[in-house]
Amino acid sequence: MIPRSRATGRAFAYQVFYRLPVSMRRRIVRLASPKYTVGAVTLVRDSEADGAGRLLLLRQPPGHSWSLPAGLLQRGENPVVGAARELFEESGVRLSPDRLRPATPNAVVHARGWVDVVFEADVPASTTPLKVDGAEVFEAAWHPLDDLPRLSRATANLLGRYGIGPRAGEAPPAPGPTA
């Protein structure tokens, strides 16, 4: 039970808050609420692959491990539009946003204050040219799901949530402080 004086103080604070102009209320909420960095990730599978299937992965600097096509959303950008943009920028695979479908779960909240919005797509690898810039991405390639190369820690953790790779079936890490 909340002590009466505390409840009265909260009620007064809300009365004052809701009398403020909307723009000022927004500023207060933005200052007081947790901040997240939001990225978009795409799991692109080879629609022609047999067996376990194949997944598009990228080798980025420093080049020791592989990751998924992903990047940060621009301010106000729709996540599916950002996912399609990043996929094209990093791999040369151009898909319209309506070809991407939300993965389940669609959003993954990480303990360090970022959120990945995850999408899936299937494309035929034999007719889907891959093109990288050699700076942000060294290489893009299709890899068998049952024989993945060395993955970045973040990629292994994310794929594990979808039952893929070396961390498949493991419980996701417990959320920690976001500071």
Average predicted local confidence, pLDDT: 89
Computed over alpha carbons, the radius of gyration is 21 Å
Unreliable residue runs:
none
Strand content: 25-35%
The largest beta-sheet arranges its strands as 4-1-6-5
The largest sheet, given as strand count, sense and whether it forms a barrel, is: 4 strands, mixed
Total number of beta strands: 7
SSE order, as H and E?
HHEEEEHEEEH
The class by helix and strand makeup works out as alpha+beta
Helix count, per DSSP?
4
Helix content: 25-40%
Shape: elongated
Measure the end-to-end span: 30 Å
Q: What would a concise description of this structure say?
A:
This protein is α+β, with helices and mostly antiparallel strands and 179 residues long.
How would you describe this protein?
There is one protein chain. The chain has 179 residues and is of the alpha+beta class. It is 27% helix and 26% strand. The chain has a 4-stranded mixed sheet. The chain has a 3-stranded antiparallel sheet with strand order 3-2-7, with helices on one face.
Blueprint of the fold:
Elements: H1 4-19, H2 22-32, E1 37-46, E2 54-59, E3 66-67, E4 70-72, H3 79-91, E5 101-109, E6 114-123, E7 139-144, H4 153-161
Parallel strand pairs: 1-6
Antiparallel strand pairs: 1-4, 2-3, 2-7, 5-6
Keywords:
27% helix, alpha+beta, 7 strands, 179 residues, four-stranded mixed β-sheet, single chain, 4 helices
